Amino acid sequence: MTPTFATPRIERTRGPGGRLLLRSAEPLAAHPVSVVHDFRAHSEAHPDRLLVAERMGEDWAQLSWGEVRQQADRLAQGLLDRGLADRPVLVLSGNSRLHLLVTLAALTLGVPVVPTSVAYALQSRDHAELRAMAELVDPGLIVAEDASFSHAVAAVATGRTVLSRDGDLPGALRPEDLAADPTPEVDRRCTGLQPGTVAKILFTSGSTGTPKGVVTTHGMLAANQQQMLQAWPFLESEPPVLLDWLPWSHTFGGNFCLGLVLTRGGSMWIDDGRPAPALIGRTVRNLADVRPTVYLNVPAGYAALLPHLERDPAAARAFLGRLRIGFFAAAALPQQLWDRLASLARVHGSTMQMTTAWGLTETSPAATAAHFPITRSDVLGVPLPGLELALVPVGEKTEVRVRGANVTPGYHRRPDLTAAAFDEDGFFRTGDAVEFADPDDVAAGLVFRGRIAEDFKLMSGTFVSVGTLRPRLLSAAQGLLTDAVICGQDGPCVTAMVWLHPDSAGRCDAAGVPEESLRDELAATMERLAAEGGGQSQCVERVVVLGEPPQLDAGEITDKGYVNQRAVRERRAADAALLSQEPPPPQVVLRAPGNAAEG
Q1: For 10-24, what is each residue's pLDDT tens digit?
Q2: What one-character-per-residue DSSP string does 524-540 give?
Q3: What range defines the domain where residue 482 resides?
Q4: Helix (H) or strand (E) holding 360
Q5: For residue 573, is it within any domain?
Q6: Residue at 143 is within a domain
């Protein structure tokens, strides 16, 4: 059998100013100019194979590769006929068959697609951010699934064409109203796509900062999929089957996951579940229908799913039965989750291999890939073929910067942000800190050491690496916690605000005071963390339990499940203040009495 992962060979050299440069010894292989060209080739090679399935009640609504190609080409002609082929398409709604069809129609013509987070449309009261996005990109077509988006559509649709699944929005077209028999112009526009043609504008703030439009070209997307094929060669002969909820408004879901399916001739089953107590059961149900071969999720998704798989052998078998790769990205996976997943695979005789990659929206998204065998969840892997990494000292840390075919040319209509994003040698400044997993073996990969902008100092001057400490705390909690926000800037010790796993709901009173058994478990968590070593900056001395989950619309969490540490600290300043009060209020749990300020 073809190995799941390629064996990397990494070149290590010194660049300008003594910076360390890493690159793959394997060059980037030839590949199509656009993901659309792969899509069209697969639609002709296997028109009857399932491409996309979407839950509609108890049933799956399905479209084959041939059906998607036919409908996408008809929509592309409709865009041409109505004069909508030279302005971006703004998509307000989430993952769906309509979303995929419109995206492929626009990409075929070289029309930029602008998928926006559903939260901007459904959870905002004034739609100010949505208006700002529409003003910046000036779309010709607005796409919204149904009438639930009516208020958002009204905020941005003036003077623009609206498309909805059933035409149930005021003045909206249905897909069949827009569609037309394709002319040779559709093929001509597709053939004329260039690597620099803009495919998407993705709005992102990363883990810090304000949203900005990342220019994503056809060449970036095509290069990144070729890079991943060279890292995962089994995809050449095994079209991936995905069950996936990750939003297409983000680079992980829309570029990485959907791109794997489109370039490798696979099948995308759209998961109507989410990593939340009320919705994760839907994912478990869907696993029985799909039995994926590649599973991609954020750590919060694995944390929500794993207890169900551990309790339900049938669900575990559906998940693991033909799974080749379990993949996570977008945040650090606590080591205890990694270990539990590996144990689950052993129990059920699965050959599934856990892995990860690192990247950003600006790298479309993957820049590194971790190869097998790895046993540490914090290893990011090595640079993908055709990409250079520069390791640059920034204060007490080492920032990783990137340069290559999959890196953005900049930010839409923001030359100031573009100029600031690149250094004098053309490397994109990521703001992420790394170090070597093994300084004597470059091929062992890099280890993530947090977002430089998220780190802070204690009053002692000691730096606290949030990206390192947070997953260690969650691992030490042994499933008690789902996430944590690290606090203590300019204080005597590191503290944290934490969220309990749903199984522990109700163990705090209305004022947020934990019951005695919970206090003991939280104190034991902090003791286990301290026993691992690392000094004052890697110990948590006090915690407070948060009752309200992180809020998407408040910017506390992305719809990928990544907690914005700074946003939570700012929005919940009153909770954070409890951690520094003397004497500690009853809501605060101490690691051990009297040791909070010790070094």
Answers
A1: 999 998 777 999 999
A2: HHHHHHHHT---GGG--
A3: 455-590
A4: none
A5: yes
A6: no
